TrEMBL record, chains A, B:
Gene3D superfamilies: Crotonobetainyl-coa:carnitine coa-transferase, domain 1, formyl-coa transferase, domain 3. The keyword Lipoprotein does not apply. This is CoA transferase. GO terms for molecular function: CoA-transferase activity. The keyword Chloroplast does not apply. InterPro entries: CoA-transferase_III_domain, CoA-Trfase_fam_III, CoA-Trfase_III_dom3_sf, CoA-Trfase_III_dom_1_sf. It holds the Pfam family CoA_transf_3. Keywords: Transferase. It comes from Paragemmobacter straminiformis.
């Protein structure tokens, strides 16, 4: 059974994170990614720390298995190569500011007229329409403006950035969804489509809870630290040697939790979820007077045995060594380029499909322009 | 031009968030969603606060436009209806714990034998394989165990939950990607596929930066509050009336920022990004001695004019009134069920496609079992 996107070629003009994250997903699903980089410097993330053996570990993981050709889209000779690539590609991805592709002569309308089957996927800070379309944006700008920083952080404290770059990443994921839908649709209609994803837009649907609270109550929610805003007990707790989570989402689980910890399950102050929310700080102290007496491992084993959802708060080193994460093949070595070189590590593919073989390693990321000869040869020899 | 997933029918057994988030995306792309709910109570989120007119605003937004039939999959009469639905569906979504569908007689292997074109999408806490497959999980459990809480929060402070439920949501997005890839692939092979998404798995790829740091340096990163860990100045700053972001990602932008704020662009303590990172707290104080003298609106206008990426830290009420977000149609009213009833609000569709008309409102969410007659009638009248 071939991989779902077997035979699909992606021309990837994107750099940094949102676009490359999208093309990595398409690659995991079986597509071939041709990274079209600007000459001399290439993708900005080639210069992003940390480095191993002079190469960016960040770039190496995010671009593992892609192919690179360096083209200056203002130079006639390179434009001629790009035109030939467009004739062979299924998907074009770009993350320029709106208008740049049009000025280069590669706007969607003209490309669609020449290559009606081409799927054109764009991701930008604010999208191709609206009053702020031309403004620059970064992950943190859309995290701020889209609201997620206002609901992240300590209760009563200043806004906190989500540690993961969800401003870029969620946008890249929506772009992948649009591209995949367009691929399916093209099988029916024979026509490509343009997809226009805005990082700011993408922040809104992921805050379904905050939208419901803000619109139904008139009061936008604030940050609540490490606890669920409307379910109790559902937060981190301190053990003797670190933090762990207890997620007792209903009365039955709360009763089990009390029995397990030796607390009084009939305490009227905690009889309902509403009362537990009203007395959340008191309940937390009562639970921690017990949990601080034993290490995290003890509580994970005890709560697991009682069927109460729990988990250790892990740092990234611990997460990358977690037996479940490893068993699911979510941590992959990146194969060094010529049998030597730095040992990079990349995330595995979270889309487990019966039609997609699991990988045990990722191929190396390309050197800048490192696949030029092979790509030109492929253009000369149509399949 | 029909919507990309026009003609596609999804049987949606999922409840709460990850699965319904996925089916909402498929619906935005044109699919018809038949929500198969358990009798009497239905989807748990029908009972989630906040409420308007006795209905959950949370459920109303996340299930807008879906159709509902209540079926008890342990009862022969309801199983007979479900079997007929399977014969007409393209996609089945479920979020039970692993093994539940097999015990009901609806495991993938037996379904694939009977309905070879059916695409089977599953999302669970830990996936269908690995030592912890059978354990229960919630968003916060996978946020904790997957590492994102360890990089979110104040510098040196305790772990903080991401305010958005990215444990559920990113998993639901990966499920949508897998389903879309399988739909495309089915056009080529005639066969469906099983997709097995784990919420814990899905936390790993979104932390590309933390993985690079943990594996290349041996030191897992911690939280950095509201600043970028390796670029300075790139964080929130205080103005007279609130917080805003300055994202000066390179030397040129930093020079412009100094000129704009009246700071010395030649100060040797800030000559490179590395030095600015070393002196991040001093630089922040110097910038805030200026920015605290004017309101946020002043600084947004001033930095916009200078071409420096910036944005207000908005709460959800402000975000939902943001002219750019409104211009992009990202806030939609939910049409009341019979011309009356509560005025719910839902997020718009962030996948803007040339082949997908924009919506100006979302249809209402279904009452429990509210579409039974229409669905049974459809089963009796093959298209």
């Amino acid at each position: 059974m071939p991989a779902p996107l077997s035979g699909i070629t992606v021309l990837d003009l994107t750099h940094v994170l949102a676009g490359p994250f999208c093309s990595s997903t398409l690659q995991d699903l079986g597509a071939r990614i041709i990274k079209v980089e600007r000459p001399v410097t290439g993708d900005d993330t080639r210069a992003f720390p940390p480095f191993l053996g002079g190469e960016s570990a960040y770039f190496a993981a995010l671009n593992a298995g892609k192919h690179s050709i360096a083209l200056d889209l203002k130079q006639p000779a390179d434009r001629a190569i790009f035109d030939r690539l467009l004739g062979r590609a299924d998907i074009l991805l770009e993350n320029y500011r709106p208008g740049v592709m049009e000025r280069l002569g590669y706007g969607y309308d003209s490309l669609h007229a020449r290559f009606p089957r081409l799927i054109y996927g764009a991701v930008s800070g604010f999208g191709h329409t609206g009053p702020d379309a031309a403004k620059p944006a970064y992950d943190m700008v859309v995290q701020a403006r889209g609201g997620v920083m206002s609901i992240t952080g300590e209760e009563g404290g200043p806004p906190v950035r989500v540690g993961a770059s969800i401003g870029d990443i969620v946008a890249g994921m929506y772009l992948a969804q649009g591209v995949l839908a367009a691929l399916y649709s093209r099988e029916k209609t024979g026509e490509g489509a343009k997809i226009d994803i805005a990082m700011l837009d993408a922040q809104i649907p992921i805050q379904e809870h905050a939208i419901a609270i803000a619109t139904a109550t008139g009061h936008p929610p604030g940050p609540t630290g490490a606890r669920h805003p409307t379910i109790t007990p559902f937060s981190t707790f301190r053990a003797a040697d670190g933090f762990f989570v207890i997620a007792a989402g209903n009365d039955a689980l709360f009763g089990k939790l009390c029995t397990t910890l030796g607390l009084d399950p009939a305490d009227p102050r905690f009889a309902t979820n509403g009362l537990r929310c009203d007395n959340v700080h008191l309940l937390k102290r009562l639970i921690e007077t017990v949990t601080l007496q034993q290490p995290v491992a003890h509580w994970i084993a005890t709560l697991d045995a009682a069927g109460i959802p729990t988990g250790r708060v892990q740092n990234m080193a611990q997460a990358l060594a977690d037996p479940q994460i490893l068993a699911r093949n979510m941590v992959l070595p990146v194969t060094p380029r010529d049998g030597g070189g730095p040992a990079f590590t990349a995330a595995g593919n979270p889309i487990k499909m019966s039609t997609l073989p699991e990988q045990s390693a990722r191929p190396p990321a390309p050197t800048l322009d490192g696949d030029r000869a092979a790509i030109l040869d492929w253009l000369d020899h149509p399949a």
